[in-house]
Recover the amino acids of this structure.
């Protein structure tokens, strides 16, 4: 009975999030149109209006991110398994986020094991999980630093390590970082790491973290080569 109630609440929350998302999208489009109208006008007062519209756009974008992250987390997705090279999967994530990371004066280092066996996993979901972990590392290095991404493994498992030289995580909150909506950062939704954990566990894998304050953190993702075997 309890599990049925939880499933119902999850469905209800997902439906509510979709209902909120639709008017929010309309609001965002109209703000953009209003911004274009203001840009065509002249005068000191218009600058104030322009600034206020920008502030509204930022908040709308933040709400959209929260809703999207919630929907990703709440939605129980069936895995679409494909054969792949994990190094290529990781590298696509790195290529995607490299421009943003370089702007923050973060040096990206890569060390891929060239002898890893082919993997069978849901490529898009695993990319999302890795991206969430990398974004978390990026946010921990506001003043620059180094981001090391490694792959390793054997015939049964592959491992992806994401290591940063950021602020680190204190021992008293280390066991809370995978909790839904728990975040110590100014930005973010508090769903990035919980979503990553859920995706990895759906693949019968594990995600763990080691961290030291003012030195940095290392997140280790361990995945079976073929989720169907284990």
């Amino acid at each position: 009975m309890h599990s049925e109630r939880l499933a119902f609440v999850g469905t209800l929350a997902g439906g509510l999030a979709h209902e909120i998302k639709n008017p929010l999208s309309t609001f965002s489009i109209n703000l953009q149109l209003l911004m274009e109208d203001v840009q065509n006008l002249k005068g000191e007062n218009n600058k104030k209006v322009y600034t206020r519209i920008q502030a509204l756009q930022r908040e709308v974008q933040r709400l959209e991110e929260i809703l999207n992250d919630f929907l990703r987390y709440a939605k129980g997705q069936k895995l679409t398994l494909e054969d792949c090279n994990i190094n290529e999967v990781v590298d696509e994530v790195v290529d995607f986020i490299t421009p943003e990371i370089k702007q923050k004066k973060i040096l990206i280092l890569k060390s891929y094991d060239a002898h890893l066996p082919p993997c069978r996993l849901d490529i898009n979901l695993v990319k999302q999980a890795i991206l969430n972990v990398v974004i978390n590392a990026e946010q921990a290095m506001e003043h620059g630093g180094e981001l090391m991404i490694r792959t390793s493994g054997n015939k049964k498992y592959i491992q992806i390590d994401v290591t940063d030289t950021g602020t680190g995580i204190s021992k008293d909150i280390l066991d809370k970082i995978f909790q839904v909506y728990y975040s110590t950062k100014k930005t973010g939704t508090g769903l990035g790491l919980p979503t990553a954990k859920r995706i990895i566990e759906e693949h019968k894998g594990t995600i763990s973290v080691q961290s030291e304050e003012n030195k940095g953190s290392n997140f280790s993702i361990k995945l079976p080569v073929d989720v169907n075997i284990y």
About this structure: The mean pLDDT is 83. Residues 71 and 203 are 19 Å apart (CA to CA). The beta strands are 82-84, 106-111, 119-121, 145-153, 157-164, 206-212, 216-224. Helices lie at 2-39, 44-74, 86-103, 123-139, 192-202.
